User: Which sequence fits this backbone?
C-alpha cells in the first residue's frame, strides 16, 4: 500500500523568507501524481501545486515550487517570499493513475506552517 | 458555479442517532469521494464513486453508507453514530476517472460531534 510521510509536524518562517516542506512517499508504481494542498483555518482544501511523475521538470506556481526526486521518492514544497496568508496546514498527497473501478488519494499527516511578521 | 457544497457545516449527534451529510457539485464531475479528517492523520478515504450508480469502499468505510443516484449528489449516511465518528468530513470531486484531470476539488467540510 502506498504511504505518504511528512516528517515536520510544524514549521515556521519569517515573512518574506523561504521555507521548504518535506514529503516522502512509498509506492511500487512508476506512473502517479503528487499534490500539495493547503488548508487554512477556514478548513477549505486548496490545491497548491501538482506534479506528474513522468515529468522530470519540477512544477512551479508563482511563489510555490517543488523539488521532485523520483528515485528518492521525495516531493518537497518550497514557498518563496512567504506571506502571512501562507499560514496554514499543508498536506502532501499521492494519487495513482486511475482505472474505471478505482481511484485513491493518499494523504500525509500534514505540516502546520506559521508565518511570523 | 458553486463548486462542491456540503451541508450542514456543523452537527451534534447523540450516540446511536443517524444522519445524512449532503454533498453536491455543479461541475458535472464523474468522480466524487468522502474523507474524514482526524488530528495527526491527514485525510482518510471513506467511500468513493466513479459515476452515477457506482460506489465503492475506501480505507475506513465501516459505519457509513453512500449512494450516487445522480451525477451531482453524493450523500454520506451515518447509520448509528458513535463517538469515534467525531471528525471533520470532506466531500471532493474530480472531472474524470483517468488522465490529466486528476485534481480533486474539496467542499468546505462538515464538523461532526458525536456525544
Assistant:
Amino acid at each position: 500500500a502506498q504511504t505518504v510521510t511528512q516528517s515536520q509536524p510544524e514549521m515556521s518562517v519569517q515573512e518574506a523568507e523561504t521555507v521548504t516542506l518535506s514529503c516522502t512517499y512509498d509506492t511500487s508504481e512508476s506512473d502517479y501524481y503528487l499534490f500539495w494542498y493547503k488548508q487554512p483555518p477556514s478548513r477549505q482544501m486548496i490545491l497548491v501545486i501538482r506534479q506528474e511523475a513522468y515529468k522530470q521538470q519540477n512544477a512551479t506556481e508563482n511563489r510555490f515550487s517543488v523539488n521532485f526526486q523520483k528515485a528518492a521518492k521525495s516531493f518537497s514544497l518550497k514557498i518563496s517570499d512567504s506571506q502571512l496568508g501562507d499560514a496554514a496546514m499543508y498536506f502532501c498527497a499521492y494519487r495513482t493513475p486511475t482505472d474505471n473501478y478505482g481511484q485513491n488519494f493518499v494523504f500525509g499527516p500534514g505540516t502546520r506552517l506559521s508565518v511570523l511578521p | 458555479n458553486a463548486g462542491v457544497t456540503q451541508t450542514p457545516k456543523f452537527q451534534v449527534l447523540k450516540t446511536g442517532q443517524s444522519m445524512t451529510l449532503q454533498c453536491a457539485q455543479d461541475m458535472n464531475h464523474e468522480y466524487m469521494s468522502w474523507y474524514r479528517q482526524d488530528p495527526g492523520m491527514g485525510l482518510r478515504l471513506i467511500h468513493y464513486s466513479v459515476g452515477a450508480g457506482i460506489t465503492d469502499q475506501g480505507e475506513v468505510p465501516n459505519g457509513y453508507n453512500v449512494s450516487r443516484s445522480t451525477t451531482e449528489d453524493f450523500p454520506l449516511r451515518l447509520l448509528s453514530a458513535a463517538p469515534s465518528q467525531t471528525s471533520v468530513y470532506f466531500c471532493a470531486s474530480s472531472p474524470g476517472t483517468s488522465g490529466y484531470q486528476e485534481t480533486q476539488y474539496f467542499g468546505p467540510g462538515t464538523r461532526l460531534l458525536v456525544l
Chain B has no helices and eleven strands. The longest strand of chain B covers residues 43-51. Residues 36 and 89 of chain B are 4 Å apart (CA to CA). Chain B touches chain A through 31 residues (CB under 8 Å).
